[in-house]
Design goal:
There is one protein chain. The chain is built from 13 helices and eight strands. The chain is an alpha/beta fold. Helix 4 crosses helix 6, helix 5 runs antiparallel to helix 6 and helix 11 crosses helix 12.
Length: about 260
């Protein structure tokens, strides 16, 4: 069991967390959602997954479709208002809610207030565990050498850098080997990879080369978009590096095929 925050207290005093699963986790990697639930419950939270949740609206927002983004934001705000905290296993979606939702409603004071309240209680998963709950270690085992990619949104919008590395240091059997330029974009960027495929492919190619050069046998990150992008490129290049979401390793849920491997 994860080392629990001493302030978690009795069930009545446990924080009620709404898990925002995210589209990519729901469609491509449900294991990450289950890992997030395990990590949060082990840390003393009561976790619920609202069935009314939808896409956070980031693709529409990045494409300039503010009307669609606002409609999706309203639905998500309403779904998560009852909770003490909102937690997402994604720096990208977490950053959208925390930093961009309030600005979606600059001309609508009532909804802007609701968006600001949601923003204040929304966190990326690993950041929530370490920065809010004070979790210092997990009880998990992973035999191998890993390297970690810092996703753009998590790093630059949410300042997630040391948090995953701190918890990974407590995983038995795991050795972390940093790649060169771990903070450089992998080339996914949501709709960026669709609008600029040649540039995106060059960027992920450079990232894949650095991953392989690190000598690690496993690549970890906290955003499914980045992970799917890098896993695809590594496979096309014939690399044998396994790719996993960091939550899977921290929760000890690595008995499923790595991302991109046949089930």
């Amino acid at each position: 069991m994860m080392k629990e925050n001493p302030s978690a207290g009795s069930p009545a005093s446990k924080p009620r967390v709404g898990l925002f699963v995210t589209c990519l986790v729901d469609l491509f990697r449900p294991t990450v959602g289950f890992a997030a639930v395990k990590l949060l419950e082990d840390a003393g939270c009561v976790v619920e997954v609202p069935t009314a949740q939808s896409c956070c609206g980031q693709p529409a927002y990045n494409s300039g479709d503010r009307a669609a983004a606002r409609a999706l934001a309203r639905q998500l705000i309403a779904a998560f208002e009852p909770f003490d905290y909102v937690v997402a296993p994604s720096g990208s979606c977490g950053g959208m809610i925390k930093h961009h939702y309030p600005h979606l409603f600059d001309d609508d004071p009532a909804w802007q207030a609701r968006a600001e309240r949601l923003s204040a209680k929304t966190f990326e998963l690993v950041s929530f565990l370490t920065d809010v709950l004070g979790v210092e270690q997990v009880e998990a085992r992973y035999t191998g050498v890993v390297t970690y990619h810092d996703s753009c949104s998590g790093l630059r919008e949410l300042r997630i850098k040391h948090q995953p590395r701190r918890l990974l240091a407590s995983v038995e059997g795991l050795s972390l080997r940093e790649m060169e330029e771990a903070e450089v974009c992998c080339g996914f960027g949501g709709t960026f990879c669709v609008k600029y495929p040649e540039l995106s492919n060059r960027m992920v190619g450079e990232k894949a080369a650095r991953i392989v050069a690190s000598g690690a046998d496993t690549l970890l990150a906290g955003d499914m978009g980045c992970l799917l992008n890098m896993a695809g490129k590594l496979q096309r290049e014939g690399a044998t590096v396994r790719v996993r979401h960091v939550a899977e390793v921290l929760a000890g849920m690595t008995d499923v095929p790595a991302i991109g491997e046949p089930g």
